[in-house]
Amino acid sequence: MTTTATTAKQGATAPTPPAARTGRTFGRRPSLRSYLASLSWSSLLYVAPALAFFAVFVLYPIGISVWYSFYAYDGLTQGTPVGWDNYTAVFTDSLLRAALLHSLVLLFFYAVLPVCVGLLLAGAMSRIRVYGLTVFRAVLFVPQILSSVVVAVAWRNLLAVDGPVNTVLKAVGLGRFTTSWLGDFDTALPSIGVIGAWVEYGLCMVLFLSGIVAIDRSTYEAARLDGAGPVREFFAITLPALRPQISIALILTVTFALRNFDLIWNTTRGGPGTTTTVPSLYVYQDAFQNRMLGRASALAIVLTVVILAVVTLVQLALREREHPLRRFTRPGRPGRKVQS
Amino acid sequence: MAITLATLLACAACSPPGAGKGTSAGGTVAITDPVTVQQVADLGDVTLRMWADQAEKPLMKSVVPAFEKKYPNVKVDITYKSFDDLIATVVNAASGTNPPDLFQGNIGYAVDGALVKAKLVRPLDDVAAAYGWITGTGASTLAPARWNGSGTAFGSGNLYGMSPISEVQGIYYNKAQLKELGLKPPRSFADLEKDLPAVKEAGEQPIMLGNSDQYAATHIFSDLAVTEQTPASIRDWIGGKAGTTFVTEGNAKAAETMADWAKKGYFGSGYDGLSNEDAISRFAKGSGVFFVGGSWNGAMLDPAKFGFGALTTGGAGATASPWHISASSKNTPAAVAFLAALHTPKAGQVILDTGRLPVVTDGVKGTNSLQTQTLDALKGTIAAGTQVGYYDWTASDMLNVMGGKLQEVMAGRAGDTQFMKAVQASWLKARQTR
Known about the structure:
The complex is a heterodimer of chains A (340) and B (434). In chain A, a hairpin with a 7-residue loop joins strand 1 and strand 2. Chain A has 16 helices and 2 strands. In chain A, helix 1 (2-12) packs parallel to helix 12. Chain A has helices at 2-12, 18-28, 32-38, 41-68, 85-92, 94-127, 133-145, 148-158, 164-171, 188-213, 217-225, 230-241, 243-258, 262-267, 279-289, 293-318; strands at residues 71-72, 80-81. By secondary structure, chain B is an alpha/beta fold. In chain B, 44% of the residues lie in helices and 12% in strands. Chain B has helices at 2-14, 37-41, 57-70, 83-95, 109-117, 125-131, 175-181, 189-201, 216-225, 231-239, 249-263, 276-284, 332-342, 345-353, 369-384, 398-410, 416-432; strands spanning 46-53, 74-81, 102-104, 146-147, 158-159, 165-166, 169-174, 290-294, 306-310, 315-316, 323-325, 357-358, 387-389. In chain B, the strands form 5 sheets. A 4-stranded mixed sheet of chain B has the order 2-1-3-11. A 3-stranded antiparallel sheet of chain B has the order 8-7-9, sandwiched between helices. A two-stranded antiparallel sheet of chain B has the order 4-5. In chain B, strand 1 (46-53), helix 3 and strand 2 form a beta-alpha-beta unit. In chain B, helix 16 (398-410) runs antiparallel to helix 17. Chains A and B meet through helix 4, strand 2 and helix 15 of A and helix 1, helix 4, helix 5 and helix 16 of B.
């Protein structure tokens, strides 16, 4: 328990961001004019190029999508306004509801699983002295940097009915479990999930390793002196200290899970039947195959809102809470590290 | 950010997207006779810009140098794209401010329909008449490129495109395996159906199928369906004729046969996890006795080891992606001359030599038995008039609806009625929104 306090302290030593300071000033003098006056215009100049880029390549397309989403538009001839019809279609289409459900299943495989595996690997790597650690780290990170088409093609072969996975299963006497993993109605979705987990766990692991490096080694020594074993050490020190990294990892993986398209397009195209369809598959089909830009835009907007909502939830759940003990520990005084 | 969005929305509220996009009808030179070298020379030094499927590269490598030699003032500049990329982007390119002069579309509503509806492509009736395309051997293959003026129905009407390349369905067979089993090359689906149990009993996989892209099985279904009803009735339905339906006894029978064959293991196991590409490469290496599919698969096969059984009963098949001339092209005579160069027996021979099938077959000869067999199959089906086109022309999401439902039928998860009703519903929806 005491060690948790130390961890919280780690977070507290981070410098207060300037934005927070401005906010406080604003709170004291609540007039808009003085707020504008307090803004440093020359600093705005520095962010202007990035802001312009952001506006042109992010805000403008989003605005266009919102605009299109209220029309029946084929991208060529004049669109006709349809009000909220495109959005009603999104929420009433049973195929889309099923696709959303598939996304939730994938959320487990693409976000929860990689974070757990990443934690396990990072925990093990930080404790056990591995020779050639850099090499292992690099190799385990490779899935993350491979092009998704390459990943899809490789896994399609691995999971094929006569692929290596089934060969291994047969070799160890589990021949009755062999199947066409991506072609079977029951195994296609979990199989795609496993591929996604494989892609993402390397990223999680590297994030967590960098977080672990930042943990004060002496806290581990202290824990060991108190008689904590490796498991206890992991849950008492490592896990709480990694809260910010876990939050980042979840944001990245959740976004990846919900907007996933390329892996599915290159493995099953949503099949067999409609067992692996996801919303972004329909966005692509509506926009580029069916030329229904209005409906595709509406669906994309809804998907964006859903992703934002889930990410916000994750952030709220994992934000740094003020620990009751923090008030009594002053940052930068190593002497008060362990309290009991 | 909120301000930006608000402004955007405010100005968006007043005008619908695509408003004021004028359709420039520039460069509509009527063609009454074949274009002369002088007419093209009158254009001055010009660059003929094109977008093509990368599968056309071997053909272009032969046609372009000859064309540039004949018309020295024209430089040909081709942008190659994969088929998927091409059909996803060509309509936007055609509607841009500087569209390519010549480009390939795709039969059906998603691409060609959109191009015709937005008046982005030049009608080619005058060209076809001037060059005699409507009377030659490939005349009947032009039908899918004919549209009504509003781009809402195709199969007849004005001609908007031309493809020099055709496709035909048939049964590829492994010669050595057939011999070993003591079977004769199949000449029809009835022959095939008779052979399947024997092959299965001998412990071989009867038909190699890779259906993860969801289309390969629909092509076999199409070949079966056309043996149960007239090709014309299927063509009518594909063309979107009012009052036609997919819920027919013939289609029910074909769906039942597919389910039955799948259940009996005639397609092996795991076909839904195998892409068509993977399947044909496995077949080329000797797995599976038969492969039912289109002529484009033949390029992967060794002519000494494989044969092609024609299906004169017809089925899926038609011309490949048609070429269009941009309605706003300033180089129309050069573009017309290029199309004409594609529609010749000489180009036809190059097409066959590079592993595909030409529309113009006069004097075109195969260099090996597989090529000759495939070419004969094409001539046979065109003469019999039994090609029905492709089901996915009917609606832009038909490939997914039909392909996905057929997977369910074959896995025993949906009945034939369910399958037919889902397909018909998609057809109807597409028709109503046109």
